[in-house]
């Protein structure tokens, strides 16, 4: 179970007294996650999610709180953190930073339907449109500069062909993005895989786990989503899911000419981003807890597929009604 800091009912009941959320009725550890301790909390008034932050820089947490508050204020399907009676969201519990969230409805989709892809594309397009006005700043910790520096940490663990593949790809990204006009930027999720969404049937209940959130290229965020949501087991893009997601997205935020030109390259770069980050976990920086690292080979295969087949044409933007 991914609860790294156990809590007692007495601890949580006392913690809840800081908020106007009712009295504790049930406490349940959540057996998922790789970094933080998560609990389902039920009171006599509602259901909540309590997160204890086990890793990372605690001084970055105010950025995440401000971003979630901002997105919730703009009616995006995100869990805005619960503020205490003094208006403070970020707390301490069991000597860990802690946040309390409303529990959103739904489950993680394993095989996204076309309707789910459309709903996610619509929500992401709305989020990116408003996030460009968010004033908070946190540099993207996994951008092209990180790729260029971090690759050297894994090269000795790779076969010669993979060393050339990674090095050649990063060189190609530096040329393509270095010569291009600046891409639209804003606050991005940074890790919007299927398991960071909740669906009740085909209705999007919420987008969760913004702890990779940062300021970056909106196209970077979109490419991460498409690589996960629209790829089959071999890394090939499913045309119907691809079109459903991107058409809904562009109805909210049409891509610029530069974004459309760089789209195939961004799909490749975000595939390499996860290949490299997973290699680092396996060989260089294993998780602090006893968890099984994700397979780096999945995103190596996906990268090779993007190189071999490119990207399907982007759907034409259609104005939202």
UniProtKB/TrEMBL annotation:
UniProt GO MF annotations: ATP binding; homoserine kinase activity
Superkingdom classification of source: Bacteria
SUPFAM superfamilies hit by this protein: Protein kinase-like (PK-like) (SSF56112)
Catalytic EC class: transferase
Enzyme nomenclature, EC number: 2.7.1.39
Catalytic activity: L-homoserine + ATP = O-phospho-L-homoserine + ADP + H(+)
Pathway note: Amino-acid biosynthesis; L-threonine biosynthesis; L-threonine from L-aspartate: step 4/5
GO BP terms in the entry: threonine biosynthetic process
Keyword Transmembrane among record annotations: no
Pfam families the UniProt entry points to: APH
The keyword Chloroplast is assigned to this record: no
Keywords, sorted A to Z: Amino-acid biosynthesis, ATP-binding, Kinase, Nucleotide-binding, Threonine biosynthesis, Transferase
Domain Aminoglycoside phosphotransferase: 28-255
Similarity comment: family membership: Belongs to the pseudomonas-type ThrB family.
HAMAP family for this protein: Homoser_kinase_2
Official protein name in the record: Homoserine kinase
Organism of provenance: Chromohalobacter israelensis (strain ATCC BAA-138 / DSM 3043 / CIP 106854 / NCIMB 13768 / 1H11)
The organism's taxonomic lineage, starting at the top: Bacteria, Pseudomonadati, Pseudomonadota, Gammaproteobacteria, Oceanospirillales
Gene name of this polypeptide: thrB
């Amino acid at each position: 179970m991914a609860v790294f800091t156990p809590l007692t009912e007495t601890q949580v009941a006392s913690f809840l007294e800081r908020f106007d959320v009712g009295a504790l009725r049930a406490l349940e550890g959540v057996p998922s996650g790789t970094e933080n301790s998560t609990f389902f909390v039920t009171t006599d008034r509602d259901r909540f999610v309590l997160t204890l932050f086990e890793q990372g820089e605690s001084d970055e947490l105010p950025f995440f709180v401000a971003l979630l508050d901002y997105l919730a204020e703009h009616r995006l399907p995100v869990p805005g953190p619960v503020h205490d009676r003094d208006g403070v969201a970020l707390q301490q519990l069991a000597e860990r930073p802690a946040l309390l969230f409303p529990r959103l409805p739904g489950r993680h989709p394993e095989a996204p339907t076309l309707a789910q892809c459309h709903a996610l594309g619509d929500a992401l397009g709305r989020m990116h449109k408003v996030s460009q006005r968010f004033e908070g700043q946190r540099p993207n910790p996994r951008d092209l500069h990180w790729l260029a520096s971090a690759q050297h940490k894994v090269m000795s663990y790779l076969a010669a062909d993979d060393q050339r593949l990674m090095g050649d790809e990063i060189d190609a990204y530096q040329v393509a993005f270095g010569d291009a006009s600046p891409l639209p930027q804003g606050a991005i999720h940074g890790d919007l895989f299927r398991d960071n969404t909740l669906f009740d049937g085909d209705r999007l209940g919420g987008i969760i786990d913004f702890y990779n959130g940062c300021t970056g290229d909106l196209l970077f965020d979109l490419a991460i989503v498409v690589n996960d949501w629209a790829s089959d087991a071999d890394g090939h893009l499913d045309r119907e899911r691809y079109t459903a997601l991107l058409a809904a997205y562009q109805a909210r935020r049409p891509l610029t000419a530069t974004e459309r030109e760089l789209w195939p390259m961004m799909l490749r770069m975000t595939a390499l981003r996860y290949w490299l980050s997973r290699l680092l976990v396996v060989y260089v920086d294993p998780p602090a807890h006893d968890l099984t690292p994700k397979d780096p080979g999945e995103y190596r295969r996906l990268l090779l597929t993007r190189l071999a087949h490119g990207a399907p044409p982007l759907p034409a933007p259609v104005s939202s009604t």
